[in-house]
Recover the amino acids of this structure.
């Protein structure tokens, strides 16, 4: 789904170079996810998925090179 | 409370204004150079030469420049640059013949960034105030676009990606670090502004 968002706007060569799972406790340390969010997720997501629900990613993509006369 | 974009932006500005004002206050999220080195793999040596006013408010979630640094003379756009840790690392790489355009919507970050440019003398950096969804950057002008933990904060993520695509030259690269949720957040969560902004 994430890759699709990039392809949809025209990017090519989309590559997730680094992908690390976050446990909910670690997730709470980041600006976007306050304790209220973590509590919310903990309540609505089964416990066996708590360690793999969220990932940090480092991603690269390219704007394609358009060759003159190419399609 | 619905996640109205203007409310969301106001809330984000308030959070990051406080981070600039007092980066060591103690937040529920990590900040600063030690965090960047120990958890995200930044080079201690590279950060050691940057002033605290650059590295202290850093609150990124990855290292987009781990995928490659820009070449001398290249033009880089940093979306949501903040106080500029990635910006300043990129500026060193492109050198005086290159250019780094640092875009941030938060007045406090924008002002801090400009102060840091004056402090470091890295005049190849130009701060511009604006939104990630409407970058104040010319079409097809960048060799590299970077961002660090910004896409998640944007109400319209597709618009951010379209803008990154627009400002890149043909063949230009995008390198971002961010957090993604493996499964969709329930609607109630997506609409809660406190969840968006922390």
């Amino acid at each position: 789904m994430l890759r699709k968002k990039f392809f949809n706007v025209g990017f090519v060569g989309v590559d997730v170079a680094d992908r690390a799972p976050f446990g909910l406790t670690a997730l709470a340390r980041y600006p976007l996810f306050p304790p209220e969010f973590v509590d919310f997720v903990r309540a609505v997501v089964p416990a066996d998925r708590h360690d793999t629900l969220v990932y940090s990613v480092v991603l690269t993509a390219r704007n394609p090179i358009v060759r003159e006369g190419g399609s | 409370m619905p996640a109205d974009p203007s409310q969301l932006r106001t809330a984000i500005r308030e959070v990051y204004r406080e981070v600039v004002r007092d980066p060591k206050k103690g937040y529920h999220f990590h900040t600063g150079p030690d965090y960047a080195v120990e958890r995200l793999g930044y080079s201690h040596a590279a950060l050691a030469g940057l002033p605290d006013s650059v590295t202290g408010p850093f609150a990124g979630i990855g290292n987009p420049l781990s995928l490659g640094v820009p070449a001398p003379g290249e033009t880089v756009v940093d979306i949501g640059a903040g106080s500029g840790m990635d910006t300043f690392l990129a500026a060193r790489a492109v050198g005086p013949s290159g250019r780094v355009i640092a875009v941030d919507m938060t007045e406090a970050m924008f002002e801090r960034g400009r102060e840091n440019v004056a402090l470091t003398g890295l005049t190849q950096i130009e701060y511009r105030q604006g939104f990630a969804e409407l970058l104040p950057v010319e079409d097809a002008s960048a060799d590299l676009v970077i961002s660090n933990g910004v896409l998640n904060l944007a109400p319209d993520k597709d618009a951010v990606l379209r803008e990154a695509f627009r400002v890149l030259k043909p063949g230009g690269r995008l390198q971002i670090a961010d957090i993604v949720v493996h499964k969709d957040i329930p609607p109630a969560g997506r609409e809660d502004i406190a969840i968006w902004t922390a």
